[in-house]
Amino acid sequence: MYLALVLHIYQPPTQYPEMLRKITKQSYERIMALLEEFPKAKITLNIPGSLSGELLEIGREDLIGRIRGLVQRGQVELTACAAYHPILPYLPKREIIRQIQVNDSINRSLFGDSFKPQGFFPPELAYDTAVGEVLEELGFTWVLVDGSAVSDWQKFLSFIYRRKGGKLLAIPREETLSFRIAFGRIRTVVGLVRAISLRELEKDQYLVLAMDGETFGHHQPKQLRFLEELLRAGEAGRFRFVTVSDLIGHFPRQRETELEASTWGYTEVVDGQRVWVRWKNPGNPLHNLIGHLRELSFNSVTNDDAKSRQILDRALCSDTLWWASGRPYKHPGMVERGARMFLDAVLSSRSATLKQKQAAEKLYHEISQMGYKIPGRRKRDKG
User: Are residues 9 and 93 in the same domain?
Assistant: First the structure.
């Protein structure tokens, strides 16, 4: 069996610098050190321009250099992404393209010729037909999707899926095993082998495991041991580590399929519709207000206004919606910081009217006040 391990490392532009430094030491440094220790190990790495730019800002050019070195050694394959991690299906086509181009510009400036992505990692693996059409138009070879995107998805594959009516290849993440590793429910290689089975391991097929890189060391400190054990097993030949692009050469057979709108995040049925409740819950008033502020920003900011446009690019990060969702967490400070970026984009825009600026200020204050209220929680009785 071939094993493609995909790690997504990312921090939003609203992240506090001290937290970024902490995560870098706990996770990113340790992952790179393990890859340097095991030269036969390979991973596919997604690092959006948001994080690579932030690493530069806190003086971690050394880490960027280590990643570049691992790419040059053939151990790391870098993917393309949207620069500031927006949920792409919620954006108009022009904004999807812009986010991809901004990401390309940032990462090429930092990684140089080492940044030559063949594949694309959609933030939160949020995919729909419109996103697929844009990726194909931009010339990407493959896109990583959640297993739920494919109606006839199988846990282990011996062929490559292709988007129906197009050339874009779709690589599905094995969701159950990825989830169990990410949440510390598989902690050893023995546990992983049992979950796969020796019989399946002996077959000529592949498995794609994909999760946040922060799993190892930050979210799940003990999972660093699992990652070390897994890479050591690959060094010993128990697993055949490959990049996602390697899979395309190993498995030339293709199967055309209709890709469904999907994400690796939690989906819930609301009013008879499947809803990505962490980012667009119609029953969440904060989500609705943030959506109105985002649309107002689109209508108020033009691309020729560099300052406000750069602020708006950052404001589109998915985290403001995530922290506003309460699914499972809520962080009023992060919600306020994210809403403030939308407001700053409008206020700094030369083309925004006074009416638009006043409307943005009103929405921002509503979001800030509501962000500190926990829906469904009753006030304590006095006395």
Answer: yes
Both 141 and 171 in a single domain?
yes
- Among 203-207, 312-316, 371-375, the least confident range: 371-375
Residue 216 shares a structural domain with residue 301: no
CA nearest neighbour of 156 among 169, 183, 137, 175: 175
On whether both 158 and 191 belong to a single domain, the answer is yes
Instruction: List, for residues 253-310, the tens digit of each pLDDT value.
Output: 999 999 999 999 988 877 777 899 999 999 899 999 999 999 999 999 999 999 999 9
Residue 380 lies in a domain: no
* Parallel/antiparallel/unpaired status of strands 160-163 and 169-173: antiparallel
Provide the pLDDT for residue 373. 66
Percent of the chain with pLDDT over 70: 97
pLDDT tens-digit series, residues 83-117:
999 999 999 999 999 999 999 999 999 999 999 99
- Before 48, cis peptide (omega within 30)? no
Q: How many domains does the chain have?
A: 2
Q: Is residue 262 part of a domain?
A: no
Q: How far is CA 142 from the centre of its chain?
A: 16
Question: Which residues face 44 on adjacent strands?
Answer: 6, 77
Strands (E), 286-373: none
Q: Are 315 and 338 in contact (CB under 8 A)?
A: yes
Angle value at C-alpha 48, between 66 and 311, nearest 5 degrees: 125
- Residues 186/195, Cβ–Cβ less than 8 Å: yes
Q: Please say whether the beta carbons of 168 and 136 come within 8 A.
A: yes
Beta bridge partners of 157: 206
Beta bridge partners of 271: none
How far, in Å, CA of 214 to CA of 337, rounded? 22
Lowest mean pLDDT among 24-28, 99-103, 234-238: 234-238
Angle at 69 between CA 64 and CA 72, to 5 degrees: 130
For the chain, percent of residues with pLDDT exceeding 90 = 90
281: number of CA atoms within 13 Å, CB side? 19
- CATH number of the domain enclosing 253: 3.20.110.20
Instruction: Give 100: exposed, middle or buried? Use CB within 10 Å, 0-12, 13-18, 19+.
Output: buried
Determine the structural domain holding residue 145 and report its residue range. 2-257
